[in-house]
Amino acid sequence: MIPQEDRDETLGAKKKAPSVGATRTPLHLAFQGFIGVLIGLGIASLLSGMAPARLALAGVIVVIVTWAVEQVFPLPAPNTKPGARSRLVLRLLSLIGFTLTVSPLLSLLE
Question: Could you state, in order of their start, the residue ranges of all structural domains in the chain?
Fold first, then answer.
């Protein structure tokens, strides 16, 4: 259902353009997740000489710092370009940190 404020009852009226951050589809989110995991695995492979516990700790620190930045600093509105970009960067950073945390656990499966 179309929200009341987005309707225009006149004939031939053009539709309102959606806001920048309001139209995230599952495909965009899957692509962002894929990129975040890929970057995280790349960083983990570059730091493979590091002890697994230190690599996991570095990932936890990245996730905590990302969460703290999101909670402490006022971010622009999510439906603006700067707001959408800043939230994208924060999502990618937290996913990279999560991948860094989980990647040493994969060696335990062998």
Answer: 24-109
